[in-house]
Design the sequence.
């Protein structure tokens, strides 16, 4: 089983954020592996161990993204593809998917895993678009996988705490829901092995794709924390009926 | 990649990428797997044994022993960083790793024969076997040369008699590295297996320190140890002292971890705690304490880094290890008092780790060479005059 895991480097949640002219100062950010991608990697490693497979990490991003690769290789991935690209912020998910597809299309991966979404821009589209471009089957919000003799069964999360098991044809691209497993820690042995694992590095411009315009960022702002208190005034009966209305219809206490 | 720890002087560039990855893993693991359970173990006085195979899997035992023996094959600095992260959570947890790696695996590696190394090191590295180290006796602590435990040569081995005290991991250990004097008064090292007849390791109770760590007595009553379990390549007190240099080196880094945790707690608390309508961090006397902690921790870090580099390039003097053990444990001990003061009444509760660190550091202050002994080792080194003889 050949598995590709799409992983991204993002700013950590507690990173200091400084914004000027609608540009985030990247130098001040503390960069880490996108957490949802760690679940995707772990699921891939579990399948690799069961099927004697091979896991390839693929990341698109600047030179600093090699840390994501090194962490993943230290945890047990076998090799990596690093598509160097300095400015992914203004690229559309479609363009990013096209770049990655162009690079991996001849690798014949049986499975492509991505985290549910990235913790920075959170589009949650990449895995879906890639499955379309490569004509792979697709599932999102995957909470469980079972592989038996090349048959893939997946457990999907539905609304309201419901789950659904379904069967997919291989090859497939799955977006993995966070919490599906417990991501492992890098071991000292794993860390020592990183330097011997191959990383295929390529600049995205070498792939010769003509891309669309992507996005322009009009404004970036930090959300304001706000608490609003609504005072209910009037006679007791009035207050009670207003309060019941809020509880029933606004807060939806059932 | 950056050091995921207090780093005021920006010393990240002094570490290799592998060392930084090890530090990040150790931080991540201790934060998620040990920090949430440590208070409960401390209160109950139990060691979290379920961590042992996890430590083994991660490679935390025998970090700086070659890979050939199933060990880490990494630098002494990587080992130091692991000690720092473990002791940031609890000195007892770091003690476990110190004993296993520096006091049990190291002597087998440094003084054992190839058979002994192949037999024990891979299992100790995985945590499948646990070890302890028996040097200190009820009446011989700072003065181990006076030890009474003796080893009488008999056909095919030795008969050991005596007792050892304050032995970390004793009751849960599969093997004990026991130091005893032979008929010529030479100190020899023995691998005593737990089921050898006449050997027992009752746990000691009533500790108000290192409560999440097992401390035991070792009792040796006519214990026959075969020749194959004698460490062949060492004779004399330099054997156990060589092990202690390894462990004290780790303590020098570990104590910094405890100090860093104390500093973090005090800093965060002082920014949140409002008195006289402003955070107490805005008061000069609080800032003075925080800055003292920060500065001393930073100095200790630079000291540990240089001692680690000396150890890695083979120029280390054991007196330099005395200096980091003595200095950095003192720093942690003072930080505990300052942090406790900054937190006021909250400082005494188990909601914060301060009292636990404070009580732990009291052990660390006198074990593995008391503060005074390290002072006198350094005094001896610079004056040429031993004050303890």
Sequence:
């Amino acid at each position: 089983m050949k598995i590709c895991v799409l992983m991204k480097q993002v700013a950590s949640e507690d990173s200091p954020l400084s914004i000027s002219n609608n540009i985030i100062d990247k130098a001040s950010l503390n960069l880490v592996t996108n957490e949802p991608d760690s679940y995707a990697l772990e699921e891939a490693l579990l399948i690799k161990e069961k099927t004697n497979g091979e896991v390839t990490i693929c990341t698109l991003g600047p030179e600093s993204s090699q840390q994501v690769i090194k962490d993943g290789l230290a945890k047990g991935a076998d090799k990596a593809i690093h598509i160097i690209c300095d400015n992914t912020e203004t690229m559309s998910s479609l363009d990013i998917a096209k770049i990655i597809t162009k690079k991996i299309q001849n690798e014949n991966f049986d499975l492509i895993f991505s985290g549910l979404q990235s913790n920075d821009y959170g589009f949650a589209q990449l895995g879906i678009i890639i499955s379309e471009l490569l004509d792979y089957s697709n599932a999102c919000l995957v909470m469980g996988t079972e592989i038996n003799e090349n048959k893939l069964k997946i457990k999907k999360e539905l609304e309201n705490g419901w789950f659904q098991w379904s069967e997919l044809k291989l090859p497939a691209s799955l977006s993995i829901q966070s919490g599906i497993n417990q991501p492992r820690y890098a071991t000292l042995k794993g860390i020592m092995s990183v330097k011997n694992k191959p990383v295929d590095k390529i600049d995205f411009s070498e792939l010769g794709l003509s891309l669309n315009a992507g996005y322009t960022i009009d404004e970036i702002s930090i959300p304001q924390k706000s608490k609003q208190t609504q005072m209910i005034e009037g006679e007791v009966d009035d207050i009670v009926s207003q309060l019941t209305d809020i509880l029933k219809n606004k807060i939806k206490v059932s | 990649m950056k050091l995921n720890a207090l780093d005021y002087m920006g010393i990240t560039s002094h570490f290799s990428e592998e060392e930084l990855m090890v530090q990040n893993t150790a931080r991540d693991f201790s934060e998620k797997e040990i920090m949430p359970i440590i208070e409960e173990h401390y209160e109950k006085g139990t060691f979290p044994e379920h961590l042992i195979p996890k430590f083994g899997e991660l490679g935390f035992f025998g970090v700086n022993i070659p890979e050939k023996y199933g060990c880490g094959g990494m630098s002494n600095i990587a080992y130091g960083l692991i000690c720092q992260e473990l002791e940031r959570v609890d000195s007892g947890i770091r003690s476990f790793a110190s004993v296993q790696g520096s006091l049990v695996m190291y002597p087998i590696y440094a003084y054992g024969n190839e058979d002994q190394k192949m037999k024990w090191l891979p299992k100790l590295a995985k945590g499948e076997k646990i070890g302890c180290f028996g040097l200190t006796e009820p009446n011989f602590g700072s003065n181990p040369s006076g030890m009474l435990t003796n080893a009488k040569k008999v056909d095919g081995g030795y008969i050991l008699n005596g007792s050892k005290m304050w032995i970390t991991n004793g009751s849960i250990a599969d093997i004990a590295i026991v130091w005893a004097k032979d008929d010529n008064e030479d100190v020899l090292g023995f691998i005593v297996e737990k089921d050898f007849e006449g050997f027992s390791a009752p746990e000691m109770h009533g500790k108000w320190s290192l409560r999440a760590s097992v401390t035991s007595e070792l009792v040796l009553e006519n214990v026959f140890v075969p020749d194959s379990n004698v460490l062949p390549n060492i004779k004399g007190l330099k054997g156990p002292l060589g092990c202690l240099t390894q462990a004290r080196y780790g303590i020098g880094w570990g104590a910094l971890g405890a100090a860093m945790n104390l500093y973090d707690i005090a800093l965060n608390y002082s920014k949140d705690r409002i008195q006289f309508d402003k955070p107490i961090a805005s008061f000069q006397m609080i800032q003075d304490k925080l800055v003292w902690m920060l500065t001393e921790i930073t100095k200790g870090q630079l000291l540990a880094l240089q001692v680690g580099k000396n150890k890695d390039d083979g120029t280390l003097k054991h007196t330099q290890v005395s200096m980091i053990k003595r200095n950095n444990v003192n720093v942690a001990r003072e930080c505990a008092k300052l942090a406790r003061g900054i937190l006021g009444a909250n400082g005494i509760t188990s909601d914060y780790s301060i009292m636990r660190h404070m009580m732990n550091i009291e052990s660390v202050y006198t074990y593995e060479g008391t503060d005074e002994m390290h002072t006198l080792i350094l005094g001896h080194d610079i004056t040429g005059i031993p004050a303890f003889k």
About this structure: The interface with chain B takes residues 30, 67, 70-71, 74, 185-189, 191-192, 194 of chain A (CB under 8 Å). The mean pLDDT of chain A is 92. Helices of chain A lie at 35-51, 66-75, 93-104, 126-134, 188-193, 236-250.
